[in-house]
Amino acid sequence: MATAADMLLPLPQLSRPVADWVKAVSELTQPDAVHWCEGGDAERGALIGQLLRSGELKGLNPEQFPGCHLYRSEPNDVARVEHVTYICTRSQADAGPNNHWMDPTEARAKMRALFKGCMRGRTLYVIPYCMGPLDSPLSRLGVEITDSPYVVLNMMIMTRAGRQALERISREGRFVRGLHSIGELDPERRFIMHFPEELSIESFGSGYGGNALLGKKCHALRIASWQARSEGWLAEHMLIVGLQNPQGETHYIACAFPSACGKTNLAMLIPPASLPGWKVFTVGDDIAWLHPGEDGRLWAINPEAGYFGVVPGTNPETNRNAYEMIRRDTLFTNVAVTADDQPWWEGLGSGAPVLDWQGRPYDKANGPAAHPNSRFTVSARRNPSWSPHAEDARGVPISALVFGGRRREVAPLVYEARDWKHGVLVGASVASETTAAAVGQVGVVRRDPMAMQPFCGYNFGDYWRHWLDVGARLMRPPKIYHVNWFRRDAQGKFLWPGFGENLRVLAWMLERCAGRSGAADTAIGRLPRPEDLNTQGLKISPGDLEALLSVDPELWRKEAAEVREYLHRFGDRLPAAMLAELAETERRLG
Ligand code: OXD
Ligand code: MN
Known about the structure:
The protein is of the alpha/beta class. The chain has 17 helices and 29 strands. The mean pLDDT is 96. The protein binds oxalic acid and manganese (II) ion.
């Protein structure tokens, strides 16, 4: 524990390795000033004041949206850039076919040239942060150096940042080094480099969330997945939610869906009125760190302290909790504004935009008023369904893991894997239509194993082997499921209403975990029969329900062949058990 005397130490004196690194980076980048972030409201208020004066932030309507601000990014800098995101391991095979790879020496030299003198005229901010509860042995530490005050504001919401994190670094010594500069925001000079062997990240040329808030995707997924493999745990792109049934039992599940496929909504689900007695508690909305516990179960913490969620579509009907959450103390990025300075986005259901996300007078001809990947950054504690166990040092026990994607066809509403090994294959086979969260074409189906395609810091072949190893160590492994809320009919209409109604599917899973609910055995896994789902008060035709719960062997044989072809890309790194599981599914498909 830090003593009272330690508390008074100036931050740069708390950790010699951090101070030495800051000095070396300052010499390289030549900032005008260096600011060590303490954390806390006073510092946050001062930063906001500075950004309001410089015009980088815009205050929003103080009556309707107290404490809320709008940030407009460069129009060319609105999403993650997977094509210039690299894993720089000594051996290319360790990064795997799932990652862009660059030799670490070459990458360092390239980045050094970019960072040289890049902070002249700017302030260098030092952000010590802790991913996970400050007192949890499962948490990990990092320091981000950045020249973007917008990044500082975000990191203060998304992580436990400031003095206490630095104190823990000074006690433990180990931390991830993340160096970031917005550079000139030139897409041609934009690179997000990861050096997992050295636990470091270098990001240049973008101020956007996943590229610039280095605690999030870069640390908590890409670097952490590497750390997790050597330490025997899993770092996953998963929400964590607690579901309390009408009998008062609470079970936690962790769900992996690709970016912008509704993780935040599911994590904050509001039970429909026709399912009385259910309660939902959010532990996390994007990332889960899963550790085998001494009791043979899997335990999860959310490494983040806030949400960086997609705004469009949020309204009091689809997700009242999210809507209430972002009405105060929220940082909006790239939304539109109304005549009275309220934030506005597509799907809000009221008001009208006068300025679009670029600050231009709104004109339909220019496309959506809010950017499709516009975001809110908000403290998790603002969430009305925030779990009282979200800060538990040992995490929460996980009863079920759920994978899912956005698929018009093929994947039924839900199915249960035969066992853990089959579940690993089910996770590895996830495919989903791309969304606006990353630069590139939207709506194209791509393989996104475990929703980790953009985020796994090493070869997927090794990653699946690690998943199999973790499962083998669990005496009481969670059951594994696959869901698809996005199945459509021949006319393109969604078959399933989604949002709060998804609880019906989750309730079936929990009943399965308790051994209380039935299922039909099919070639791809176990599916609920229509009578196994609670459809009381649900408006759905029997035909639609049947379509949602059907498995077309023809389509699935094609799917299995595609999965086989995909898995073969991983050559000798692919565990034989995966091919054995696939062969078993193919055998069942006939
Ligand atoms: C995110 C993403 O921002 O997955 O969470 O892109
Ligand atoms: Mn995400």
